[in-house]
Amino acid sequence: MVAGVFSLVLALLPAVSSGTAAAAPKPPGSTIPLGEGYMGAGYLTDGKNFAPDTRQIESGAEGSVSTQATQAGIDVSHYQGTINWSSVKAAGISFAYIKATESTTYKDPTFSANYLHAYNAKVIRGAYHFARPSLSSGAAQANYFAGNGGAWSRDNLTLPGMLDLEGGCSGKSTSAMQSWILDFYNTYKARTGRDVVIYTSPSWWNTCTGGWSGMSARSPLFVAHWTSATSPSIPSGFPYWTFWQYTDSGSVSGISGAVDRDRFSGDSSRLLALANNTP
């Protein structure tokens, strides 16, 4: 469902929650309370307040659904409650990003169980960190993330960690935000040997970084664009997407309630190569 329709639904039905936080209301942008961030928490507000999501990838470009096989995925946090990962795997889910941390003080209470049980079910999984640029440095948050779930190993089942950027610009200028992101990236790579994946929407990236191209050669893009279209809009500064969160209201066996649905822009061999950091 496209973001505009979601905004209308939420406005008309305030008692109905949707998305990753199926049991909680959508928090308003930069006022998201500590511990309540998740992939998509700031998407609607960013899309309303910032530059619109309009830049489309060219047909046939890398990351185009029409020209490549894709792998099905989800992203989860404590809002999903207890997950039956064997059922998730049986439903055809190849990968999952699982919330690990926020800032330098918060670890998702379901992370350890989700990370272990996804691994045991042979779902290729990665951890993600919900960024809080206004609270501490990028290096401090990267160190906390790497030490509390964001580490990596070449075991056929672990994706590089992901940095979730959304929910307002944290009072930072575009140059200051660029520096914060690079600080996180450099520290994470020094700790793990991997390039961190960046999750964001075109609205957030174009506004808060100025459409910065400085991460396109470093970080795979995990783009947020909730739409039924065959390809997403992407931020300026990135030539294509690697992961795409296309809805916040999916349904998957093994999970009660709504869950974010994602795609990887390649076949299973390319997903494994990303996990293992091989060509």
Write up this protein:
The chain has helices at 3-12, 43-49, 85-90, 111-120, 138-147, 174-192, 202-208, 268-276; strands spanning 71-76, 95-102, 106-107, 124-130, 162-164, 197-200, 221-224, 243-250, 259-264. It has 279 residues and is an alpha/beta fold. The chain starts with a helix and ends with a helix.
Which tags fit this structure?
single chain, 279 residues, alpha/beta, 8-stranded mixed β-barrel, 17% strand, globular, disordered N terminus
SSE map:
Blueprint: H1 3-12, H2 43-49, E1 71-76, H3 85-90, E2 95-102, E3 106-107, H4 111-120, E4 124-130, H5 138-147, E5 162-164, H6 174-192, E6 197-200, H7 202-208, E7 221-224, E8 243-250, E9 259-264, H8 268-276
Helix pairs in contact: 5-6
Terminal Cα separation, in Å? 35 Å
Cα-atom radius of gyration: 17 Å
Sheet of most strands:
8 strands, mixed, barrel
* Assembly level: single chain
Shape field: globular
- Side by side, the strands of the main sheet go 1-2-4-5-6-7-8-9
Uncertain stretches of 5 or more adjacent residues: 1-29, 57-67
**Overall average pLDDT:** 88
**Total beta strand runs:** 9
> How much beta, percentage-wise?
15-25%
Order of helices and strands: HHEHEEHEHEHEHEEEH
Structural class: alpha/beta
Q: In which range does the helix fraction lie? A: 25-40%
Q: Give the number of helices.
A: 8
